[in-house]
Amino acid sequence: MTNNTSKDFAWTGWRWASTGPTKVGNTSTGKIPDVPANISFPTEEHRILAFWKDIDAFQTSLKHSKGRKEFTFYDGPPFATGLPHYGHLLAGTIKDTVTRYAHQTGHHVERRFGWDCHGLPVEHEIDKKLNIKSPEDVMKIGIKQYNAECRAIVMKFSSEWETTVTRIGRWIDFKNDYKTLNTSFMESVWWVFKQLFDKGQIYRGFSIMPYSTACTTPMSNFEANQNYKDVIDPSVVVSFPLTSDPSVSLLAWTSTPWTLPSNLAVCVNPNFEYVKIQDGETGSIWILLQSRLEMLYKDPKKAKYTVLDKMQGSALKGLEYEPLYDYFIERKGKGSFIVMADTYVTDDSGTGIVHCAPAFGEDDYRVCIDHKVVTGEDVPCPIDASGIFTSVVRDYAGQYVKDADKPIQKDLKARNRLIRQTQFSHSYPFCWRSDTPLIYKAVPSWFVRVTNIKEQLMKNNAETVWVPNFVKEKRFANWLENARDWNISRNRYWGTPIPLWISDDKEEIIAIGSVAELEQLTGLTGIKDLHRESIDHLTIPSRQGKGVLRRTTEVLDCWFESGSMPFAQMHYPFENKDRFENVFPADFIAEGLDQTRGWFYTLLVLSTHLMDRAPWKNLIVNGLVLAADGKKMSKSKKNYPDPNLILEQYGADVLRLYLINSPVVRAEPLRFDEKGVKSLIAAVFLPWYNSYRFFFAQLALLKKEHNYDFKYDPNGDTKFDNVMDQWILASTQSLIKFVREEMAAYRLYTVVPQLLALIDTLTNWYIRFNRKRLKGDYGVEEADKALQTLFEVLFTLSKMMAPFTPFLTETMYQNLKTCIPESANIAEDNRSVHFLMFPDVKTQYFNADIERAVSRMQSVIELGRYIREKRGLALKAPLRELIVINKDPVFQSDIHSLESYIKEELNLKTVTTTADEAAYGVRYELKPDFKVLGQKLGKDLSRVKKALTTLSPAQVAAYVTDHVLVVEGITLGEGDLEVVRLFGASQGGKDASVKSKYEAKSSGDVLVILDVEEDLELVQEGLARELVNRVQRLRKKAGLQPVDDVKYFYTMKVDPAQKLSLAMKAQAEYLSKTLKQSLEEYKGANGKEVIIDEEQEVDEAKFQLFLVRA
User: What is the pLDDT, as a whole number, of residue 376?
Assistant: First the structure.
């Protein structure tokens, strides 16, 4: 043991007291903790946070685990320019749960927080602040000033992040965090880039990319997929008169009129059939796809037109047409303004003829290149970086492209080139940062090759574990299958500069992979920063006599930085080289479903290129957290409660459990509902807390009445001979085994429900069934056995639940450990439950027979409860008999062995087990599953249906046993027919009277029949139980503890037919035994304090109940 020489917190009656130096291993104090009846979970959590801070719990746990096997975890970096939301809290809870569990199972788990500091989220804030609309605006203030503004807000909400993350109970290192703006991080990113460049995996290309005019930069394809919205756009059909016969026009459709000034060609599908028609109203002659006449006519069958000719699309190839505008008229006769043919043209929309502006469409560009309409270096693009038409398009110069849609349509209509004009709704990509529509635009960019490593990506991904697996096999696999080369350059300012120095003729290129290399080649020493303002002016002398090389102006996509974080967070390979190679790849990562096309993808691409393996072994994908109405959470709409308010109203543990015990951990969406958070308190936390409080209340009671001192005996494995003790211990150990197996597979969604089931089992079954033993009604020895069992489960639960609900388990543990003798040596440092190891399985407790028997008993009790509730029979009203029918002798034996519990729980005189269904009028009917049989039998269904009504009891019994029945020559098997077990009334006469006396309920292969007829003796027993209940409720209301000495008195006010008075006399012995005193008629307090008195009502009788100090 070691000594704790600093002050630490100690629990004393749930009040925090500062104590002097204590031995770290000290457990038992000899004083029974006073656990209050009421608890504020948020208030208690703040005390725990203070305790953790005082003992530096997280760092202390890391010191204790030093030298253990490493468990590597990568934390995906968020931006600190916004506040944390429920999605962050969810992902953080999953990460914290898994890493806490890893620590508790014998690993050293370094957990460093990361910050994404570069990119559009930061720049967008500065653009709004400084009213920057174009690159020219940035140049006016200078990149140095612009980046200084960015740097100033990078960590704007970092303190709020640390506060919220800490408040949720997550242990992660903020002091030793990593930031993508740090020179060490950026240097490693440069190293990654250079490795790819030297391998020939980076190239400069001219590509049609999703482009944000608001942010003046291209986006990667996976960024473009992050923010789709339903929009209403124009839908126009435009005419293109043939040069050879201007009376005949091709009809092309588009939803982007602003691209029409850049039209250079149209495209048809060579395999489709096109039609030349003459319109009956205008006399115009048009060519379009025959199956798309609906674009012209509401009902083509009734429309007035004449078919003049039909032709294959291939026959139209090469025809020339008159341009819509003369902006590029010099290209006429030189390969432009022609009909092209390509199979990308579909027949499900438009006219089957596609207008092509090669600068603004990926397929347009490809097909125009193939048909030599343009070359890779010659693509007319008459808009600037902000999406404004240049002077080339003189009629619309200075207009934003989307704003030009209406003027363009108006102009075409005036020139009779606009044939149809409507609107339509469709899904369209928006910039994920500025929330403005993206356009597709030709841009020169730097790319990382991806298409050439698709097979390796698929192979490496296949070797990893995803939870849930369907995201890996479907969503992510499909994304990889269709992966394109990755555009990694951004025409921006605040980011990691692309480390390429290029000659003016672009033929000499040098990639820089480190600060040292940059200093060597530029001749400048002491470089401390790698941002644009610090290095853009640096030149490198040409090795080929080309003067000087200058850096290309672009910066790296911030996703390139995120994907480089496994290397860059450790400043690899410049530092930590051996350690990195020992801990790579990560054992575990976790983020939201949206990261399948973001961080998960970029991590895999870069790691595959550099290491030829995936950078993670196990990955948990969570779904999205939506507002209660199923819509995206929106600050402006205020459709969700503030996370901080939820934390302070209900507590972090409750929120954590709500999130990870929901469909969201199976990558399904969660509609966040505050009522769901609140309901967990009543359903889980209060019952769990009350069972823990009940334990200490019994210790105090037994100390008072029997001078009994409880001490946990961790080696008392063989003395548990009570069946309920054996059952709860066996169930607990089975759960430990289950949790270990499932957590090894990262299936949180199977683990949490079972942990909560154990809490329910403990509170609603074990304690409920053993309350008298625990109170000492059967002697101190039996009480000790029951308390040892209860402590074992509570202590085990605190360790098992610690990764999931770190606060309440800490609170419980601090008092539970007072019952553990120092000789138990539960840990070298036992100050916190989070310093303890996850419980090992105690196989000596395993008992499959008892678990099976109790499970069957529970089923019988649940059926009995159902009948009571259905008939409105309170559990306090005793009933005569419950009959349990099952043909399995082992089932009957199990129920017989536990019938005392069934009788007590259901308040029964007798439990009868039997296999004789006939003796109780039980019979069966077979009902066909028409949905199943309809598909299977077709026209034979009616014959079979009729035959089923004539089955003999023997035939029905045979199907019940064998699940096979031949009817009308047709064999019916299991699942074709539903077996319905009937009891009573339908046979008339005798059964009708039976039905009124008995009520039946079945589940699976067990049927219970309850005698629901009441008699006087049983009624009086029920009234006596109600009296006891009223006394106990009044004690609780008065805040009395079990050790408080109180006398009970009553004054009868109303008692129809003296029903209650007679019951009190008949049940006097029961009342005296249960209340441990007689219930006397009140004749004054005789000078004693009347603690509380209150009118009570039991079955129409009214009386005043007095509690008087003894």
Answer: 63
